[in-house]
Amino acid sequence: MKKLALAILFVLGLHCSAMAGFLEGASAYNARNYALALREVTPLARAGNADAQHLLGLMYYMGRGVPRDYKQAFSWHYKAALQGKADAQYVIGAMYYTGNAVPQDHALAVQWFRKAAEQGHPDAQHALGLMYRYHVAGMPQDVVLAYMLMNLAAASGHRNAVEQRAGIARQMSQEQIEEAQALSRSWKPGTPLPAQSRTGAGAG
After folding, report:
1. CA nearest to 24, candidates 16, 58, 47
2. pLDDT of residue 20
3. Which domains are delineated in the chain?
4. Would the pTM of this model clear 0.85, i.e. be above it?
5. Residue 150: half-sphere exposure toward Cβ, Cα within 13 Å
């Protein structure tokens, strides 16, 4: 069985916020003025702003503007994840998968990856696709679902997903590829991902 390698890719996706302080904090972060970013986002994070919580969690994770502290990183990302922030949900999934600052729990990792993936998060879709391809983290092997997830991630510009999709396709029948493509076309962000396919289980 091939070892699953997950790269934690933090995609901030800093969208327009009604809170000017967050925009100033995000701009300061992007300009590597971490001290200013910390001043701007900390009160917003404490007030419950999910974007600020995610960014503050990222700062603790990377040790930018604050000492690196994975427990604080998890805590702030978890607050944002509970509010539905997909980037934070992906990070929580990755931390549970690796056992970083929390006990390793692949079942919880899958749950959080799925929450983010169902919002259209390409890194989470890629992670789930790898799990289905290589039958890890308690996930069944299913090349159809693996292809579907890589197809969705690739549509969002995920380069590794493009390569993974090509590799999976070489293991698939035409019927399996057609099912995976149909599943990709019919799925919409914000809706559940399928838990099983008709033709892909146990293949690969």
Report:
1. 16
2. 61
3. 20-98 (1.25.40.10), 118-186 (no CATH)
4. yes
5. 24
